[in-house]
Design brief:
elongated; D-Maltodextrin-Binding Protein, domain 2; Prephenate dehydratase (chains A, B, C, D); Alpha-Beta Plaits; 5-stranded mixed sheet; lyase (chains A, B, C, D); 317 residues; homotetramer; prephenate dehydratase activity (chains A, B, C, D); EC 4.2.1.51 (chains A, B, C, D); 3 domains
């Protein structure tokens, strides 16, 4: 970015090299040429940010097949001081790999991260009906497990390109069920001033519902609907204190500095016992929010001007 | 109010002395000892205010039997520069009066203001089935018509106490259908700064619906509902340019300086092509608005503080 | 309609010949060649129907300038046994007429029905600033008043064509404020089976709001909105027992035999303490209702089939 | 149930003996003395029902800490022919166990099902900060892993009572974070006629949102809200074909044979491109649904009677 002695920034991500998370981090322009810190789980990644070990962490937040990454949603709901500053999409494709010389018909035990396994199970049930699954802690670790004799693994589900990192052979490609599957990642930093809108932004928040009111979710959704703010994600998560109490993970189109979004957030804040603002950031798909003219920024400003004049008694005549 | 040479204020009202409008004006403390200007119709009363001839005008705005006084609603919707500053209730009671010596069984032609006639018709149909109605321009004028030979009036519908002003005898009392009937009056002045809330206030406005959206009325009502603002009046009036286009006359509980009311008005202003704010003023019945804590002023201020801190990046941790 | 001895039908209308109401009745094909019964007011017209003196009555129900004809709305709300069977639109145009030889500059006292006067006042204020208004009981009666010496009337506001009925001269044409003004009439009969839908129908009803629930109007409107039923009229009328209690006069697009309308009416009936169904009838403007496929009749039938199968336990597999 | 030769029923559940699922099945009166079939995963349990190997399967559906069991939700959404017939709650409590003689200070590697581990991690972080986690396929398997030398496990997270099934000693009790945690199980059978309401019932369904309408979720929720039907669960699940498309897993208070629930389901069916009815069954907590009189069964029947009479033209007078 500059040839002066700008301090290096550090980015934590679920490693090792070769994971989908690393693929997401490769999309971050500002991260190129900086320090990349592979970690072994989500908690470690977020802890690096909270403690200042890293400036930001890349984490998986939603999968088009498997849904929200609930442990990430719950972490963002409960760890204070974090802020989402970017969103990245990585296509989900898998290959089946084995140690050199192993053939598909030799495969019984298949290592794989549980999410990856879920997406490839249909193919495995067809190709190797008698296979057994051994869970791995990451897609890359599954390949590494091939070389841990104690684990007795015959094959591993891994991302394309894994053969650059391990001495493996590809037994089959494109084994995931849905060829359009994609994982959504977010880049998380410590809390700081919100960046400016780009015109194609997304705002993430988490809101608890009040305990004592049926229809509370309807009220919450109407805060967005009456301001013409579309939601791209709505996921319920148990608060955890007792059955039936939920918080909602919400992604809304637009930026907190858009008047209609700010007004909706004010409404949500008033009606919810607990709201966590997670950030406003550019959308990965660069799609601009659509809204009717009645929800335009100018309309909000004009209304405020009108209200002030009306209270002061300026004669409209 | 003071013994210094404070200029006298002038109040216009539908005269002559003895009308229900005068009874409403008698309830206005600040009007006592000032100039009272009887006029012959609503247009004259409001014109007095617009032109500065009077400081305020008392006008009937709603009747518990007959509904909104539509001509008054339409005048407030279209004459700029007016503001409602007070509300007063007058019980609607009628007596049947005649020239001395006339008996009930002699009565055929009955003079009465059309609204008064409507409220007394059931009684008249029973007592004098063959009667005919001659419209009068006010309840007091009906009594005056008894002494206009050309009109050939036998009896008149008039307010109690009319015998203090005219040489008439009361043939029957309590002839109106509903003993609890009441007329609501408002005191109208020129536009000026809105007075402070009293805790038991009402806010009046008139809003047009957007032309091109079904569900527009639902949207309008939700602006109030989502802020917990109850409506005490909702009346549709044709805009008049073509069939099917309406403006709505709305009375809402609370004061424009109450946060929840101000926020609802902002929402209405944004979504309506034309809003006329008619005023926030103390309610005649002194009933305080009821609302849930979530719509309290503090909740609005706290939400704004939260939004500002969130945008600035104040760490909540 | 037929030369066999079909009994003659009788139609009551606000007479005499020449009124807008007569013009509406002229639009009713089935009424041609039948008995037409001019009456002097709305109550008489409806009473003719209730008592069987007439088969139907034509009454004015809404005016594009002046709004709902409240006395007609209130009559339909409270007189049982009536049903609207047709809708007709009549353009509202007025001429100023006088006895032969009278000139515009001679005119001081102008007779006119109050509604007609309201629509022509702007023209009269301009042309004859010093004029006075004498209320008449109908637009035709205003012309008749020209020949009642006791009334001292100089000119009358009357409908075009009045010169066919009275010896008058037209002083000015097109004196009403809005050239597009129109009055909506409905043809009212006794209750009977609802006729079949035509595809361009309207359904009229009157519903009271429950006394004890704020947000009750919103609930009422949502009964229509959730079934995709648009409203063409919504007017509040006081119930009359005390201030603040309303019934709503509603015209909805569609026919009670349309599934979406029937379902909305069921919802209204359940939530309202009192609903009066006034009728489903062809729209005067012949405009078909627009609705999304999701509100189509088939969708309703399919859903009922599905519900029955689900309860019976038919395996969808 | 009877000593006559009634055929034995078979129940599949996630085994082996000692799991929470077995604890749920122990609550099913009709299952006592019948054949219990331990299986190793959810897919096997449901497949037993689909193929007729078992009459019913007990499966975990929601956890008060961890949220919906998404794989179970997705299975019910996509496997046709299944029906929920009962609901059971099992408190979630964990003990830490080891082979006889092992002390807490010797523990490094802890076996545990990932969900169980999540609930006990706080305690383990405190007691054994350097511990490592080895995932197990069930809570009971974690204990079994203690005796698989290859796995080198020191201690296991297991349900109370595990010492009845394995030769283990309890190192610590009550190690789960939340003492009130509970898992909700449902008993699933093949599709058949819905049983009668008990007055304290729950209805489960899964509905897709239409693709092309923002506000579609609001519409869906209003189908329940306008009939006074409370929701006890609302969880979004990706449909899986592309990012941003969801189905919603819904638990509603009441029974499909309750009129208000049936009417809400009809509305959902009309507006959703795909609805799966999962069943109406007695609630585990035996809490009766609360609703306003306006949503009572009688109100629905009365409204239908009224609609029919109105269409037929029965005179209400």
């Amino acid at each position: 970015m500059s040839h002066t002695s700008e301090p290096t920034r550090s980015y934590s991500y679920l490693g090792p090299a070769g994971t989908f998370t690393e693929a997401a981090l490769k999309q971050v322009e500002a991260a190129q040429g900086q320090t990349w810190r592979p970690v072994s789980n989500l908690g470690e990644a977020l802890n690096d940010v909270v403690t200042g070990v890293s400036d930001a962490a890349m984490i998986a937040i939603e999968n088009s097949i498997d849904g929200g990454v609930t442990v990430a949603q719950d972490a963002l709901a409960t760890i204070p001081g974090l802020r989402i500053i970017g969103e990245y999409l990585v296509p989900v494709r898998f290959v089946l790999v084995a140690r050199p010389g192993v053939k598909l018909e030799d495969v019984t035990v298949v290592a794989g991260h549980p999410v990856a396994y879920g997406q490839c199970r249909a193919w495995l049930d067809e190709a190797r009906p008698q296979h057994r699954h051994l869970p791995a802690t990451s897609n890359v670790q599954a390949a590494a497990d091939l070389f841990d004799a104690a684990k007795q693994v015959d094959a591993a589900i891994a991302p394309p390109g894994i053969e650059d990192h391990y001495d493996v052979e590809v037994l089959a490609e494109g084994i995931a069920e849905n060829p359009d599957a994609v994982t959504r990642f977010v880049l998380v930093s410590r809390v700081g001033p919100v960046s400016e809108p780009t015109g194609a932004d997304k705002t993430s928040l988490i809101a608890e519902l009040p305990e004592d009111r049926s229809g509370a979710l309807l009220d919450l959704l109407e805060q967005f609907a009456t301001r013409g703010v579309n939601l791209t994600l709505l996921a319920s998560r148990p608060i955890g204190d007792r059955m039936g109490r939920y918080r909602f993970v919400i992604d809304a189109e637009g930026h907190i500095k858009d008047e209609r979004v700010a007004d909706a957030l004010l409404g949500v804040k008033r009606s919810s016992p607990n709201v966590v603002f997670l950030g406003s950031y550019p959308r990965a798909d660069r799609v601009s929010a659509e809204f009717r003219p009645v929800h335009d920024d100018n309309r909000f400003r004009d209304a405020r001007d009108w209200l002030r004049e009306v209270i002061e008694g300026v004669d409209p005549a």
